[in-house]
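Predict structure. Chain length: 512.
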Amino acid sequence: MSDFKIEDILNELGVKAENSGTSTGQKNFGSGEVIESKSPVDGKLIAKVTTTTKEEYDEVIKTSQEAFKTWRMMPAPQRGEIVRQFGDKLREKKDALGKLVSYEMGKSLQEGWGEVQEMIDICDFAVGLSRQLYGLTMHSERPKHRMYEQWHPMGTVGIISAFNFPVAVWSWNTALAWACGDVCVWKPSEKTPITGVACQNIMAEVLKENNLPEGISCLINGGREIGEYMSNDGRIPLVSATGSTRMGREVGTAVAKRLGKSLLELGGNNAIIITENADLDATLVGAVFGAVGTAGQRCTSTRRLIIHESMYDEVKTKLKKAYSQLRIGDPLDMNNHVGPLIDTMAADMYEDAIKKAKEEGGTVLVEGGRLEGAGYESGCYVKPCIIEVESHYKIVCTETFAPILYIMKYKDLDEAIAIQNNVPQGLSSAIMTTNMRESERFLSAEGSDCGIANVNIGTSGAEIGGAFGGEKETGGGRESGSDAWKAYMRRQTNTINYSTEVPLAQGIKFDL
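Prediction complete.
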């Protein structure tokens, strides 16, 4: 492993090796089962947390509700100031937190630091947002009446995050929710709980320094049952959940039954269309990073290349050459391109997907497989794999969270767009072309059906200024930039009568 001691990182972030997994800020507790967080980098134990019991969960929710009474009445710019201080703390802790993200999740160190930078960026965005929670004014049809709308905080926001972005997606939600006046209860992935403890510690410092209620930011740990508590809890008006489509269906159904609101960011099965007018040098960078970055464990990872038949053989040759240069190993060594999968179960799923693709008739262009031996003791390292397929194969329509890239041919752009859209997921998409008509067609209403559609960049990676999310089985939620803040607030329409009469709408007469 790279030359750093995990103990030093944990100390800097205030994380104990035997840590509780429940926190309401200054108070840490937990008496549930123990979760051991082991690094996929080398299989070693990082630290332990305890899961949250039902009784402890109820205490956390009550604490958050009490904190909401204070937090919602702070002027929004003052709430923004607290978020600004949190962002500054992240700047101070960026190196340590980025290393912990890399070691606990297995992504490259540059990506670990990049994820913390995303947290800083969304804090900056939320600070500005705190002075821009605008409503509208409308003209009333009644004389001497004024109409307008305003936005109010919702209450406790429940956040369920996934292992692949263990801290960034939480911050997308919390930074906006805090600016909007909500309080947050976070259940990080049970596969990456230590980064959750570290982030909670950082925010707890900010709240303590400002003499604010600890329940503004709360942490709970555990598996499926904790998510079920949140989904079925009428005290939580909004549940934001990131993860698999299967998980999202369960969360969305449970929240809908109690008429709550859910914000779902689920699976992706993202494609790049490579036209005969593509700049292949630029295309190769976007395609390869999209396919192997984070070992293919991004919801925006490139799963499919849809290549014009005239370019197909040339693209194949270039891909094989690029893949032959990939270095797989310790993600904290910045000479490596690809780190491990999150755990051995993920590696099993990777192998199973390759097997199914071959059984359906796929031809392997770049052979995959699990790596063994020195440096690969965790059993989580695999080779990025490329398989030639037909677009209708069942496995091609399934998201596999691993570095498997499926490639296929097309004849004309109509066919390419149809192939791209013919999967259940609808998160990210891209077209590589120097032809304006092709790019505009791809972005039109008859083009990509995804929430994200790019031209001449890959499917992977998103800036916080734009709303992030997708359609179909991706869940329809939107996080981060643009007007995604509205998901964290309730809209209220107000009518003010400043006359001495009470005229009714639509000219109705009601005389007493």
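Summary: The longest helix spans residues 76-105.
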